[in-house]
Amino acid sequence: MQIAKMSHHSACFSVTLLAWAISSALTQAHAEGYELQKANRDSIKTAAWSCKQCQPKTGHIGEVSATLAYNDGEDSRFGNMTGTDKDGLVGAVGADMQYKTPTGYQTELVVDNLGYDASSAKLSTGRPGNYQINLGYRGLANYNHNQLKSPYVAEQDKMLLPDNWVTGGTTQTMPMLQSSLVNQDLSLQRDRFTLGGYYAGKISSSSRYKASLSYQHEDRSGAKKTSANILTNSVMLAQPIDDSNDQVDARVYFSGTGWQAGINSQMSQYKNDHQALQWQSAYTPTFGAAYAGQNAVDPDNKAYRVAAQAGGGANGHNVLMHAGFSSMSQDEVFIPATINGPSPALPTDSLNGQVDILEMILKYSGRITEDFSVQANYNYQDRDNKTEKLDFPQVITDSFHQGTAQNSLYDKQTKKFELKGKYRFTSSAYAEAGYTRDENDYTELDRQSIDEYGVFAKLSYRYSPSWSAWLKGEALERDGSEYDPVTTTQSPSNPWLRKSYLADRKRQKVTLHTDYQNDMGLSLGASLHSVDDDYHHTSVGLTQVSYLGYDMSAQYAFSNDLSLNAYLNQDWRDSDQAGSNTFSTPDWYSTSEEKSTLIGAGIIYQNLFDNLLDIGLDYSYSDGQSDTDVTYGIASPYGDYYARKHNINAYAKYKFAESMSLRVDWLFEKYQDANWQNQGTTWDSIPNVLSFGDMNHDYNAHYLGLTLSYQM
């Protein structure tokens, strides 16, 4: 016999309908003289009237799971999709459990892929809305390469060559190079631990408060690509990363009828386990005895921030005020200017650096009439570098002393204003328009002030309950003070050069969007966007950039159990640049054409075979490529620069018992990229560069996982 299942909402509706019917009958009975007070209620079983499904569940509920999978980790980059770069059998556990009491106390445990590098776990307990304590962990991973090779091995703060290494004047004359190569793994693992909670209560019948405190500790480990050189000879290194960051966040907020106010503060401290990066030179010294070099690493530093905000409103008008102060400091002891020969004296033992930031925000929004509303924002930020300016010795590639130079103190002051209004013509049409102005003042840059201002307008119209569209246009212009190229650095700017972030620019943006959705389960969306940047006063530098793109998406639900979705996105970016090899007017030009494509589709089919089987399939394809031509007398096109990827994600979940199910996941990725800068190179292709070789990817990888779940 098949038992009919009633959904939560259906059950509540049925009981409500029953109560309405009983109420009608009782009303009619009262009209006929049968008063309710005189009714005999002793035999009535009122417990049967309650909607048990409408009551909040108490006790233990949830699900636990265990996963065993085979992962193809030959190329670690595939791990960015699976969450682990381990090759072969891998395992993980998961959970989503809750415990509730009739008094409102609740404990929740959520675990996702614990055992993989990319995983998370969170335990929270308390009375939601009153108090709660949280304990969490999150693992994050980013895999770049694990198939690169180099003769260097990391040992604490040093990158060492083999004991029997024989130096050479070039990479081709290093006799031990090929036999000394070992794998280099460029990846980054983050382990983040959090502890925190909040307490909320009432001050009076109309006002409340909420106080929260949280602590976060994060460890990073792995290696990143870096380079080092002595004179004209360079090496590529896998620089070790071992550092940590601690952060404390405290907040107190108060709220009442039509208002809220609060104070928040944060403190953070960064610590690097490495003091410097020393490396042995693989080359025969050109002169002297420079057999090693030393690079600086990220120094320990601290920061704190205090901010307050208040807001309120009434009768359709709202105001928000925010003010904050931040301070960042760094006082790590300097390393010697060089380790080759006598080191020039430093002006101080440590930088004693400090940067303060003051910020203020004022926002207003209000409804002037029933159809017209306005918004106004004003942001102010002042960045003040209080570090002392000193004369530091300049040692070129850890080899020879070349005078002194002062550290630059970059200050910045920003004032940004935005005003926009919205007017509704009818229930189906409205228009928006606005004005923005962004003023920036700098120190020690080629330009002392930059102003950007512009207007935008948007028109939105709903053709029918199912179909709507909007069109938005924006025009921005940037200009500023006269150019005064900085001459205090070792590499002064070309007087004709206009750096793109400081140059005069005219920008035009247009976006057209439409969407359609009906009651039959079909929804469609499409948009077209265009951006044109004209650096109209630049002779050397970036002169023109244009963007054009569109995206489309569709979803159709055949039923509550079967749905399809698909999407397509394409973007084009073209840019022109002019350069000079003679520290003067342009003598070479380049054009770059970039194109990106993203295509995807998916299907979900649930409750097959008497509600026992769910299946799903997703496919996506992405392709990004860039073509660059440089004209310097003759045209010289760059080589291949592209990345292509196919992804398939398929799953099937089968419920073979009332509380147990088995899920199968299959992931497939085909990836290929090429970079003309190192395509086809080997470790000794360049005589004065000891490289990692060809750093391109080309792989097909699979992941097959089985997950057993138990419903509690």
Describe the structure.
With 712 residues, the protein is mainly beta. It has three helices and 34 strands. The chain has a 26-stranded antiparallel β-barrel. A four-stranded mixed sheet has the order 6-7-12-13, with no helix packed on it. A hairpin with a 6-residue loop joins β25 and β26. It starts with 7 loop residues before the first helix and ends with a strand.
Largest sheet: 26 strands, antiparallel, barrel
Could you tell me the radius of gyration in angstroms?
A: 33 Å
Give the CA-CA distance, first to last residue: 26 Å
Pairing-aware structural class of the strands and helices?
Answer: mainly beta
Q: pLDDT below 50 for ≥5 consecutive residues: which ranges?
A: 1-50
How much strand content do the residues show? over 45%
Give the proportion of residues in helices: under 10%
Question: How many strand units?
Answer: 34
Number of helices: 3
Shape descriptor reads globular
Mean pLDDT: 90
Observed structural traits:
712 residues; mainly beta; 26-stranded antiparallel β-barrel; 4-stranded mixed sheet; 3 helices; 34 strands
